[in-house]
Amino acid sequence: MKLIALILVVIAGMGLSVEAGILGTLGANIGHYWASFSLFGIEAGLTYLLMLFFGPRNPASFLASPGWQLTGGIWGPLYVLILTAVTPVIGITLLMTGVLAGQVSKSLLIDHYGWFGAARRKISKERLAALAFASVALIFIAESK
């Protein structure tokens, strides 16, 4: 099961690169805000259909969740706006490597401290090495012509 999960997250990561490429071009053509809005409009429609056909029939109330959990939706638009605006400037490879370095660094802290209800996973030498490799990759890509 872990192998399948890893394959799926690699595919999802590939999807983010495709998304960045599409959004960067779309943002340059119609504006960053309109490109982001179009993405979220399509995502909302598709998510609605998934909920309608595959979701639970009596879901828990959305507003019954703790308030801090509802702030998770703030990060998506911010991320998409950054993708849309920055992709044409620095390119997809540098953008995604920067995203990866940022994700690994913050994820280490979230796992280590168990923030947001995540299971605690200690920062290990191997995890720090992974962060170092992601950071070195970011530097190499940023310095390449």
Please state roughly what percent of the residues sit in beta strands, choosing from under 5%, 5-15%, 15-25%, 25-35%, 35-45% or over 45%. Answer: under 5%
- The helix count comes to 6
Rg over C-alpha atoms, rounded to the nearest angstrom: 18 Å
Helix content: over 70%
Look at the structure and give the mean pLDDT.
93
* Shape summary: globular
Give the topology string: H per helix, E per strand: HHHHHH
Which characteristics define this entry?
single chain; mainly alpha; 145 residues; 6 helices
Give your account of this protein's structure.
This protein has helices at 2-30, 32-54, 67-70, 75-90, 92-113, 125-143. The relative contact order is 0.09. The protein has 6 helices and no strands. By secondary structure, it is mainly α. The radius of gyration is 18 Å and the shape is globular. 78% of the residues lie in helices and 0% in strands. Helix 4 (75-90) packs antiparallel against helix 5. The protein has one domain.
Summarize the topology.
Blueprint: H1 2-30, H2 32-54, H3 67-70, H4 75-90, H5 92-113, H6 125-143
